Amino acid sequence: MLRLEKRPQPSREWTALSPLLAVALTMLVGGILFAILGANPFEAIRTIFWDPIFSEQFSGFTRPQLLVKAGPLILIAIGLSIGFKAGIWNIGAEGQYIMGAICGAGAGLAFYPSDSVLIFPLMLIAGALGGWAWAMIPAILKTKLGTNEILVSLMLVYVAETILASVASGLLRNPDGMGFPGSRNFKEWDAAFNSELITGTGMHWGVVAAFIAVIAAYVLMSRHIQGFNIRLTGEAPRAARFAGVNPTRIVILCLGISGALAGMAGMFEATGPAGQVSIDFNAGYGFTAIIVAFLGRLNPIGILLAGLLMALTYIGGELAQLMLGLPGAAIQLFQGMLLFFLLATDVFTNYRLRLTKKEAV
Amino acid sequence: MDDTLLSIQGLTKAYPGVVANDNVTFDIGKGEIHALLGENGAGKSTLVKMIYGLVAPDRGTMTLDGASFAPPKPSVARQAGVAMVFQHFSLFDALSVAENVALGMENPPKPRDLAARIRDVSEQYGLPLDPARDVSSLSAGERQRVEIIRCLLQDPRLLIMDEPTSVLTPQEVEILFETLRKLKSEGTSILYISHKLEEIRSLCDHATILRHGQKVGDCTPSETSARELAELMVGSSFATPKARDVQLGEVVLKVQNLELPALDGIGTPLRDISFELRKGEVLGIGGVAGNGQDELLMALSGERLSDPGMVTFQGNDVSRQGAGQRRLPGLLSAPEERLGHAAAPDMSLTENGVLTAGKRAGLVQNGFIDWGKSRRFAEDVIEKFDVRTPGPNVAARALSGGNLQKYVVGREIVQKPELLVINQPTWGVDAAAAASIRQALLDLAHGGAAILVISQDLDELMEISDCFAALNEGRLSQPRPVQGLDMEQIGLMLGGAHDMETAHVAS
Known about the structure:
Chain B: It comes from Pelagimonas varians. Chain B: Residues 6-237, 253-498 form the ABC transporter domain. The complex is a heterodimer. Chain A starts with a strand and ends in a 6-residue tail after the last strand. Chain A has helices at residues 12-36, 41-49, 51-54, 59-85, 93-109, 119-145, 149-168, 205-223, 225-235, 237-243, 247-271, 285-295, 300-324, 328-350; strands at residues 2-6, 351-355. The radius of gyration of chain A is 22 Å and the shape is globular. Chain A is mainly alpha-helical. Chain A has a two-stranded antiparallel sheet with strand order 1-2. In chain A, helix 4 packs parallel to helix 8 and helix 4 (59-85) packs across helix 13 (300-324). Chain B is of the alpha/beta class. Chain B contains 17 helices and 23 strands. Chain B has helices spanning 44-51, 74-79, 97-103, 111-124, 140-152, 170-185, 197-203, 226-234, 293-301, 323-327, 349-357, 371-384, 401-413, 431-446, 458-464, 487-493, 497-506; strands spanning 4-15, 18-29, 33-37, 59-64, 67-68, 82-85, 158-162, 189-194, 206-211, 214-219, 251-260, 270-278, 282-286, 311-313, 316-317, 331-334, 364-365, 368-369, 419-423, 450-454, 467-472, 475-476, 480-481. In chain B, strands 13, 16, 19, 20, 21, 22 and 23 form a seven-stranded mixed beta sheet that branches. In chain B, strands 6-7-8-3-9-10 form a six-stranded mixed beta sheet, with helices on both faces. In chain B, strands 2-1-4-5 form a four-stranded antiparallel beta sheet, covered by helices on one side. In chain B, helix 12 (371-384) crosses helix 13 (401-413). Chain B starts with a strand and ends with a helix. The interface between A and B is medium-sized, with 21 and 34 residues.
């Protein structure tokens, strides 16, 4: 009989090893899946993981996309990871991302066509506040009424999507847009445009913010007492209370940080790569960031790498759809597998497998 | 011998470092309610686990109805007619009563038949219960009924009940007693484990008393006073306290009419507790577990806040201050539960040092943790209190209970508290380490700190305390100087036997 036995302490080797093993298993099982779908598995894997960066034919276009896609994923995942460490499950980053985009864009458009240098910082603050405020709804409901933040934050995503559809075809609609839904295009308004900072790299202010968030989160979680309190709350709530940590403050803090970062990500996206607030500009970054956070072991450096990897599968997946005719659902399945295998291999961080003789009955 | 159901002969079970049961012998008659009485750690649980087949004895034999009885596992014991209601229920919240009952059966009947049988049994024994209800909507008393009915469906000959009334309201206790008396009248034997003296006196026919794993007496409870029972349970072997030369200073802690409702409806509310504690004084608080010890510690440590004016520390009202704020001027505490409360299991010893010593020991500056200093703090505690561990980077849960206890107690003592509130300071620690922890507490008091020790070990309290008080159902007796206290008075203070004795005389 096989039996799982709890380790006296979490294994350091497995903590580092399990993401790599998960990637390997995903490639293996994904390859089998692609083979069943009639594609050459080696070609499919190469198209997803190799071509976006190294192919002469595509890399000119796809390489900058790596940072464009990884930026918001990392920024959101960093915020989520802080809450996850405390056992606070914000599943609604997508909604906070949308509200950040709406508030950021709205704050800027109120001053159109000003060319003040303060426009973009103002939009950034408005975006962060929008995401923060949206996250405060589950936070306050949880602390005051004891509701479940998973459900509330998730359902608020659909509310946010409805608001997005409404403002894109109403309040924020481009007055010069001949009645088409969607806001003004920020690419045509320099003061508010989140432009590419270094040509050909995909680097924009959102990517810079993501890198800063990685460093700040690393310092917070490993050196600062608030980060310690957050970890303590997640690992042993009673011990946290014994230490003098106020659980209400931790909920407000964690949901606040993750909401503000998601809001900023939404604002950077709307004013940069997306260019406008349109009905369906949100691409699911808020949900994918959950995978990124776990794939990165809730560790800031890990999240940086996981964000880049996830961005790669996005771009590579699109490429595979285009070049090999693989269905989009197969790519999503491929990404889902990554999280699945990660959680599965994760068991071995805290447990080890033991062979036991079946006991005589 | 015909009316003996279960006969226990010389049962012995030793665990590394402790003999849980030492040559225990007694008989349970047919149709008898037999009490097993003893303090926490006296060996009651180990004994019933052997009867129920969860633990195999090292030595000794049992006979059930004349036949040799040595169940290798609970299902064999159940087949032989032994059923057990545990103190902690094993029910699935999301399932209905009937589904939960079916899960515990070897060959569950069809759902409809089972529901009908549950209804029959519950009516027959006066335990109202609807088989279709979800367990999540049941009260603790109703959950217990599910467990009892699960047992009764097997037509047991011996029903073991482990502390059944600890979760019940007085009304539910009455209902339960009616049921048990009915079972008894039908010839079912009951082994009833408790440390509530008055219950045992009103319910049980015979009592076997255990202390430190040994049977120390048996009696007919209804003919024995609560005081005598308490004395048997506690023993009168402890050393007479030495008169200590104590210089009492000014009042450090003043608790006035402290009231605190039970947390989440479980546990014990604190009722009108008042006392004072002076510099250099050690106050020992005794009492049977579950009478408000945890609650008192949390009210003093600041984990739970009380109304203004109830807790005054060094002349300041700290009733509305949290644990972190109280710690800064030197009100430190060490709770009973080491893993999960006093320490975070998956965090290292260094991190667990920061947990309470962060601000007071200067490990945190401007919000940033000085890990080098924190590590030295942890190493200091490890060295001074002889904690056996490879180093401060080890996770708390990897330490043995006794070693972790040394660490969490040492962590507070090293911080030089003005007042130390400590629950069960030497629980699970070997004798040498226990002695050194007690000595450390005495040294601390000698240095001018006030100490409040909550413990279930009377010997320990008598050894180190200047004053003694007892907690009973959330009430604290008047603290009295330990010198001059005799066994009889302690027996009366414990377990609230004082009130019961007068009631007994009055009736």
